[in-house]
């Protein structure tokens, strides 16, 4: 059986240059692209570099120089003259350095690729895969979510929310974001009237135009937003499922903006949270219907469910339970590619270790649902309510939070802009947030410790899995239909909220929920507590249902 020979790249810092961080980053990308790598180290002489390329039968010789442009230009001219015989044999040459040195290297015309630090890792990988990294077109970027995840691995896709109060500013912003080539998925933030009353102009309120996002009012508006993204790195577009007319909206989203994936709640966006016209049971049924529609069209589905409980100070066990029920329903209603969203820092005060334990518990339980027809893709994000108002502190929080999230090896990182506590993100804010996120991700991928092996995290994860099974048992106890499914029946799920099995402190005085549960941050975890502030297990809290 014939095997394909791995290509070999030899790399070094040339001459008297001792700066090799860029060389090492390049070699890491080369390894990811399947190359055999040979690192010669810093301050390598021209002859040593050439000899190593000959000895290793190199397909590519990559050199770096990060000192003054004048000395670099003379050194590279000598290098090109000495290595020309290798070039004639078909060896490729790449250069990396500071912009002034790179500019002179580019002018020589000797190197097939010149990198000055402004290129994205996607562009570097494109070169290493034999593609034209300088002339990228639409066909170079996968146009569906799962294909793009696989294309970009091991780096996660970056997603960011964006929508300004006018169509004109949003269109221009999308153009600028796409041209910056730092974001893979633009999540359109549309205003409340568009989510609830798109097909009902008689119900729209002109005074609310642009409240919460871009005021899309026609299919042509969505087409215009999509066309604005057809440049740069051709980001995917997606938006939320709306709060009424779900199937009509889904059909329009797919036809006009090729909706990358659907975002559907299970218990929310109805009269319980004041964001839609349906009652709780009715909205659950409608959400299940639209899940089935997207599943039938082989479009991924995200249930943006558990963090809505977390943002209302629900305990970690209810967060995990809601996340499991979301995945369970997606599978039951025909979704094949399920995006499990995990919001960190929610509620604020949760520690990094307890966040990781909570997410690990959720993934372990959801993993029991996976099979050949149901795949789970991990998406992480920073807590919506966790950002400080001061921008320097907010930038630090974004970077630190994403670094922790990388312990879960996410397929998608939902970047929540560092300006969230102050204002809706501008194009410049989005680009800056993505640049910070990319750096955190690169740092994590270069050798992050396996935080999930921490015994404290493992112990907490196991505890949450055990407690969640008790909560699920209580939900099942409400159901008497032997031919039905307690975890998908809309009436039973609504009853679980009405009876307080699923509950959150912020739901007090809600006509659909109890709002009597009490929670507190204890040792970094959000726990159920009794009237004295003591930790209350699910066995005791739900004793009447067990």
Task: Give an account of the 3D structure.
The protein has 546 residues and is an alpha/beta fold. The protein folds into two domains: 8-135, Cobalamin-binding domain (Rossmann fold); 155-452, TIM Barrel (Alpha-Beta Barrel), CATH 3.20.20.240. The chain is built from 19 helices and 15 strands. It has helices spanning 21-32, 46-55, 69-88, 99-108, 121-128, 145-152, 167-180, 192-197, 219-228, 246-257, 280-296, 306-310, 316-332, 352-367, 391-405, 427-445, 455-477, 490-498, 538-541; strands at 8-13, 36-39, 60-65, 92-97, 113-115, 157-162, 185-188, 236-238, 262-263, 301-302, 337-343, 375-381, 412-415, 519-522, 525-528. The chain has an eight-stranded parallel sheet. The chain has a five-stranded parallel sheet with strand order 2-1-3-4-5, with helices on both faces. Strand 4, helix 4 and strand 5 form a beta-alpha-beta unit. The radius of gyration is 26 Å and the shape is elongated. 47% of the residues are buried. The mean pLDDT is 93.
Structural class by helix and strand composition: alpha/beta
CATH superfamily of the largest domain: Methylmalonyl-CoA mutase
* Number of domains as seen in the coordinates: 2
What kind of sheet is the major sheet?
A: 8 strands, parallel
Task: Estimate the mean pLDDT confidence.
Answer: 93
The CATH level-2 architecture of the largest domain is identified as Alpha-Beta Barrel
Please tally the helical runs, counting DSSP H or I stretches of 4 or more residues.
19
Q: Percentage of helical residues?
A: 40-55%
- What CATH calls the topology of the largest domain is TIM Barrel
Compute the number of strand runs: 15
């Amino acid at each position: 059986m014939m095997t394909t020979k791995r290509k070999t790249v030899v790399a070094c810092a040339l001459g008297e240059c001792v700066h090799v961080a860029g060389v090492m980053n390049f070699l890491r990308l080369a390894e990811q692209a399947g190359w055999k790598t040979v690192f010669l180290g810093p301050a390598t002489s021209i002859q040593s570099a050439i000899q190593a390329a000959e000895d290793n039968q190199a397909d590519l010789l990559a050199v770096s120089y990060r000192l003054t442009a004048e000395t670099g230009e003379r050194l590279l001219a000598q290098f090109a003259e000495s290595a020309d015989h290798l070039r004639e044999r078909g060896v490729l040459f790449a250069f990396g350095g500071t912009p002034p040195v790179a500019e002179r290297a580019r002018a020589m015309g000797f190197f097939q690729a010149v990198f000055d630090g402004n290129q994205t890792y996607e562009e570097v990988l494109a070169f290493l895969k034999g593609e034209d990294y300088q002339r990228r077109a639409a066909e170079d970027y996968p146009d569906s979510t799962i294909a793009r995840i696989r294309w970009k691995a091991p780096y996660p896709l970056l997603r960011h929310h964006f929508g300004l109060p006018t169509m004109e500013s949003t269109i221009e912003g999308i153009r600028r974001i796409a041209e910056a080539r730092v974001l893979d998925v633009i999540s359109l933030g549309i205003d409340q009237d568009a989510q609830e009353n798109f097909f009902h102009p008689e119900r729209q309120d002109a005074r609310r135009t642009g409240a919460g996002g871009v005021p899309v009012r026609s299919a042509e508006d969505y087409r215009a937003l999509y066309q604005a993204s057809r440049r740069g790195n051709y980001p995917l577009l997606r938006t939320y499922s709306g709060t009424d007319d779900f199937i009509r909206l889904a059909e329009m989203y797919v036809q006009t903006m090729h909706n990358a994936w659907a975002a559907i709640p299970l218990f929310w966006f109805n009269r319980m949270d004041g964001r839609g016209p349906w009652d709780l049971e009715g909205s659950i049924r409608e959400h299940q219907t639209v899940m089935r529609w997207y599943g039938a069209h082989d479009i991924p589905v995200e249930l943006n469910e558990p963090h809505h409980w977390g943002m209302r100070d629900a305990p970690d066990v209810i967060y995990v339970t809601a996340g499991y029920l979301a995945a369970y329903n997606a599978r039951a209603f025909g979704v094949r590619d399920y995006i499990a969203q995990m919001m960190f820092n929610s509620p604020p005060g949760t520690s990094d270790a307890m966040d990781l334990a909570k997410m690990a518990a959720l993934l372990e339980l959801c993993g029991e649902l996976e099979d050949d027809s149901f795949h789970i893709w991990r998406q992480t994000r920073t807590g919506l309510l966790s950002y400080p108002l001061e921008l320097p502190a907010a930038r630090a929080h974004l970077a630190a939070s994403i670094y922790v999230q990388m312990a879960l090896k996410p397929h998608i990182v939902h970047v929540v802009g560092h300006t969230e506590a102050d204002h809706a993100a501008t194009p410049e804010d989005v680009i800056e947030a993505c640049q910070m996120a990319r750096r955190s991700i690169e740092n994590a991928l270069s050798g992050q410790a396996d935080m999930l092996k921490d015994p404290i995290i493992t112990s907490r994860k196991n505890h949450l899995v055990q407690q969640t099974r008790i909560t699920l048992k209580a939900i099942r106890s409400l159901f008497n239909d032997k031919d039905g499914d307690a975890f998908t029946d809309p009436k039973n799920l609504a009853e679980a909220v009405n009876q307080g099995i699923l509950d959150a402190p912020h739901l007090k005085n809600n006509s659909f929920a109890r709002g009597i549960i009490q929670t507190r941050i204890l040792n970094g975890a959000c726990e159920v507590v009794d009237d004295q502030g003591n930790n209350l297990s699910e066995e005791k809290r739900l004793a009447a249902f067990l």
